[in-house]
Design a protein that fits this description.
By secondary structure, this protein is an alpha/beta fold. It folds into 2 domains: 30-149, Rossmann fold; 196-327, Nitrogenase molybdenum iron protein domain (Rossmann fold). It has helices spanning 3-20, 75-79, 90-93, 113-121, 134-143, 157-168, 171-192, 223-229, 236-243, 257-260, 280-283, 286-289, 298-301, 306-327, and strands at 36-40, 49-55, 58-63, 69-72, 87-88, 106-107, 126-129, 146-148, 202-208, 211-215, 249-252, 264-267, 293-295. Strand 1 and strand 2 form a beta hairpin. Helix 8 packs across helix 14 (306-327).
């Protein structure tokens, strides 16, 4: 994907992040979002089977077997079940994890007023969106049943896969996929077992635009793969200020980087940021001096869907194994 599109994509995702994450809603824990009851729609002449999904906006009636889905933020969550939506934003279509499965899916652009007309033209029977703009959500609801699932609702792969398995009526497929996922995680963990000394800490951080962020164990920059799945240990400050506090990202001044720096650092530089790696603050960190900094590819570590997390687990483990084998 070209740099311009990547920066636009980064800006869109950061905007949603600031709305749902930094405001303290990064992990809503809406367990009832996943529950529903099936019923027959006896009030319609077509007698189509429907189901009720309980959401943060109340109960939403959707088709039990939707055929024309439009999604904003959850493309991979459908593709992993072999379900191809009819429309999705370009940044999801161009993700390295979905691009090979995206043929035939219409680009609906950004989450703005222009998307409404494009979505309407696709005649969807279900819209699933991260939301963020209630005025847009209301317009979507006039087009088709709409599930608003805010960014950060799901904090972990198992929860997310099971939620979409229920939405699609594919619970058994979800469990089968998760069994394979768990097996890959265990293999990745085994590949670095014994190479990492007890008490070794790992940080996930980096500049975005003109700001600097520390990331926790949620949806940001591979945090789930690093901390939740591989079980790598965060610095105590990261655990206290982000993970235990259910905060996905924390904006700090660069003068405070050392307070959150672990023995190893996973570094994300994105959003057009210009980062001076020779600065006095950065260059004096132990991880930097010991060459224990792994720079992440934003295109591979920005996505946070189950397919992405599965790949990120293996990629992080491979990075560490290659380095630690040489360090022995």
């Amino acid at each position: 994907m070209c740099k311009a599109k990547r920066d636009i994509c980064a800006g869109i995702i950061l905007t949603v992040l600031l709305v749902f994450t930094l405001s303290g809603c990064g992990s809503t824990g809406e367990s009832d979002l996943n529950s529903y009851s099936s019923k027959s729609d006896s009030n319609t002449t077509t007698n189509l089977e429907t189901k009720i999904i309980k959401t943060i906006d109340g109960d939403v009636e959707i088709p039990a077997n939707p055929q024309r889905i439009v999604t904003q933020g959850y493309l991979a969550n459908f593709l992993v079940f072999g379900v191809k939506p009819v429309g999705a934003p370009y940044w999801e279509l161009e993700s390295p994890y979905t691009i090979e499965m995206s043929d035939g899916i219409t680009d609906i652009g950004q989450i703005d007023g222009g998307s409404v007309e494009k979505i309407l033209s696709l005649k969807p029977d279900l819209i699933v969106t991260v939301g963020g703009d209630e005025k847009l959500n209301e317009q979507y609801r006039k087009i088709a049943p709409t599930l608003v699932i805010p960014y950060g609702t799901y904090h972990e792969v198992h929860e997310e896969m099971r939620a979409f398995g229920e939405i699609l009526g594919k619970e058994r497929e979800a469990e089968k996929w998760l069994k394979g996922f768990d097996s890959k995680v265990e293999s990745a963990k085994a590949s670095i077992q014994g190479l990492i000394k007890e008490g070794t800490t790992f940080s996930l951080m980096g500049p975005f635009g003109k700001d600097f962020y520390i990331y926790g164990d949620g949806v940001n920059r591979g945090g789930q793969a690093i901390y939740q799945q591989l079980g790598l240990t965060p610095p105590e400050t990261v655990r206290k200020d982000l993970i235990d506090s259910k905060i996905n990202a924390l904006n700090i001044s660069q003068e405070k980087i050392a307070d959150y720096a672990g023995d190893y650092i996973f570094l994300d530089i994105s959003g057009g940021a210009e980062f001076d790696e020779d600065s006095s603050v950065w260059s004096t960190l132990d991880a930097v001096k010991n060459k224990r900094v792994f720079q992440l590819n934003p295109e591979r570590f920005w996505p946070y869907d189950p397919i992405a997390v599965e790949a990120q687990v293996e990629e992080i483990a491979s990075m560490l194994k290659d380095y630690l084998d040489k360090e022995k």
